[in-house]
Amino acid sequence: MASAVISAAFRFPFVTRRLSNTAPRIRFCHSTIRSSHSTIRFAHHRRRFTTASSSSMSQQQTGDIVDASSNDENSAKNPDDVVVQYVVLRRDLIDSWPLGSVVTQGCHASVAAIWSFKDDPITLQYCDPQHIDSMHKVTLEVKGETQMMNLSEKLKLGGISHKLWMEQPENIPTCIATKPYPKSQVSSFFKKLKLCK
To answer: Where is the region Disordered (predicted)?
Structure first.
């Protein structure tokens, strides 16, 4: 009975804050306790996710969402390849809109891309409770609307699933966010863009 109480107590992830630089960091994740000195694992049940994809539908566009998930067959082969989500904002909007409004556009696009591809195995890995505190995003910028639309077209042609966020009711393209991908698979599409500063 006591073991059931102990294992149930550690199912909810939370992180304790570091009180000083010398204090060890303790993180509770599901059924694992990690500190800088040791790791303790408890018995637990893992959720398994399966996804069904149609091989006849290689690329589907729904509104401004481009789904190229059939191109992800080799994406999980290298476990050392970091999974990353790219977010691309427009410099002209950064210079003319309030900062909060531009950040909101990036948030909208990022969440929409994650939700649109929520059944994708790489997205499930990216959002898994064991990885949720170590997400990787790269935020880049393009000059304006023309470059944003060109990038979206380039990603479509390259088979990269993404969301082009259109601010409504103005119908202005403000941001692109990819679904999560292994960095080696998508970094070449973004190598000429600047980091957003």
So the answer is: 50-78
